[in-house]
Amino acid sequence: MDTIIAGAIYTLIAIGFNLIYRVTKFFNIAHGVFIVLGGYTVLLLHNTLGLGLLPGVTAGVLLVGVAGMLADKAVFGVLRRKRAPGVIMLVASLGILWALQALIALVFGTGFRRLSGMGEIPETYEIFGAVVTEIQVAIMAAGISVTALLALIINKTRFGMAVKAIGDDEEVARIIGIDTDKIIGWVFFIGSAIAGLGGILIGFDVGLLPAMGMMLLLKGITASIIGGAGNIYGGALGAYLLGLVENTGAVAFSGGWRDASAFGLLIIFLLFRPRGILGT
Amino acid sequence: MDYLIHIAIYFTIFSITGMSLNLIVGYTGLFSITHASFYGIGAYTTALLLTRLGAGFLMSVALGVLATFVAALLAGAILSRFSGDYFAIVSLGFSTIVFAVLLNWQDLTRGGQGIFGVPRPSLFGCRPASNPDFLMLSTAFFGAVFLICRFIVNSSFGRVLKAIREDEEAVRIFGYNTAYYKLAVFVTGSMMAAVAGSLYASYIGYIDPSVSGVNESVFMFVIIILGGLGSLCGPLLGALFLILLPEGLRYLGLPVIVSAKIQEFIYGTALTALMLCRPQGLAGKYKP
């Protein structure tokens, strides 16, 4: 059960990351801080300011989407027009992660925060003999429904076709009349918003730390590379596989080796199958 | 005066990490975000030898460098097959593995508690080195690393590195085994970082796994990007700035944790701003 929950969380991180990678072809490290930003936005709106649960979460997801879009307009779009190589974009996004992470720590403190009340005993369900909490059911549902929804958008809408076209060749896409900057802006909105949702769910399930973004993002990147970078289903598939390997590693050795076994898997894949399971 | 000596020792240690990372990033174009791992391996090996076995200082540093040589060779054998952003991501992954090992190998490293009471070297006679003594020692290492770096970048080996940075494919077509060159510079730079780590462990007297954390690696990255990629003096400029910034912030009288976060905010913003306006850094010669 831990595997499926971890897999669903990584799915939410990986598919947004993968979507952005698909059109921009760079590793957006800043994606990690948008996960965290989602959690803390809800902390502010829902827990501190007392906004209802649903409006609070919705506002949190949308605000993170806007933040992602702004990052694209202010930084990545500018670099794209300069034709900066991938590493420059990567370092720039690393800077955004660091700066925003520090800002979150300045506002909310560096300590551990939870979105659900500390003392509350969460309502639990039994699925296939395993006990799961309400929020973990929500995580699993979100993992599946967001993947399905995104697949629908990418495969069935004009927007999705434009995204694919830009992913294949941005230059050609622009020539045939696609407003690439606008589409990429929305890709950042959607990708970041999904990351924000992931962060919110993590906040309800285990809790939030300002510095947790980098590690979560590395998991997301690992999932998307082993699944197939730029492939939506690949991200989800990689996420569940990663969840499985990690939890096996944690059981076989001890919990502390969870992260290390994840990157061991990443390195093995990069050496022997760098395009991932579903990569082309 | 003691304060200035403290700053100067920090400067020499940070400069060694900066200069060595610059060999890898600035001269060869390999965006390694795992430099602190080798700094940490050097620091831990030296600290363990000094505290557990009571080995001599120079001996401990030498063995720290040797241990890092082995680790860097293993990591580099994998890393030298990648370039560009994949290199950056794999190196980031590697740095989390080293961090996990230092944190979880409790029997050897004492995990998160860290290692206390790492002694200073006793260079002249029996007394442990005072701060001025230590400054002389670290300056000697600093000078040696500077000269080695200058020798490397001006040698024919260094010219191949710069050529790989500009166009690896072309260099390979000319018959150079680029993976070998990438591995060699990666291992050399990492061994220098181990020297810096050893000095740090002995100077401060305490280390914990966070010395090898991702944040430290990014911090070292900021040193060279800020100072300038592909120039000998760039990292010195970057190290100076990154030492003076927290000292300057101290005069504002903020709580330590707040000023640490303000620093991180400034580093992050500077990194992004430099990428937008001047990707080669302040005094840099290499524009990725």
Please tell me about this protein's structure.
The complex is a heterodimer of chains A (280) and B (288). Chain A is mostly helical and 280 residues long. Chain A has one domain. Chain A is built from 11 helices and 2 strands, in the order ααααββααααααα. Chain A has a two-stranded antiparallel sheet. The longest helix of chain A is centred in the first third of the chain and has 29 residues. Chain A starts with a helix and ends in an 8-residue tail after the last helix. The mean pLDDT of chain A is 84. Chain B is an all-alpha fold and 288 residues long. Chain B has one domain. Helix content of chain B is 74%, strand content 0%. Classes of the chains: A mainly alpha (280), B mainly alpha (288). Chains A and B meet through helix 3, helix 4, helix 9 and helix 11 of A and helix 4, helix 10 and helix 12 of B.
Features:
heterodimer, A: mainly alpha, 75% helix, B: 288 residues, mainly alpha
Q: What's the arrangement of secondary structure elements?
A:
The complex is a heterodimer of chains A (about 280) and B (about 290).
Chain A: H1 2-24, H2 31-48, H3 53-81, H4 86-108, E1 124-127, E2 130-133, H5 134-156, H6 158-168, H7 170-175, H8 180-205, H9 213-227, H10 232-252, H11 258-272
Helix pairs in contact in A: 1-5, 1-6, 1-8, 1-9, 1-10, 2-3, 2-4, 2-8, 2-9, 3-4, 3-8, 5-6, 5-8, 6-8, 9-10, 9-11, 10-11
Chain B: H1 2-27, H2 35-53, H3 57-79, H4 84-104, H5 106-109, H6 131-154, H7 156-166, H8 168-173, H9 178-204, H10 214-227, H11 234-250, H12 256-277
Helix pairs in contact in B: 1-6, 1-9, 1-10, 1-11, 2-3, 2-4, 2-9, 3-9, 6-7, 6-9, 7-9, 10-11, 10-12, 11-12
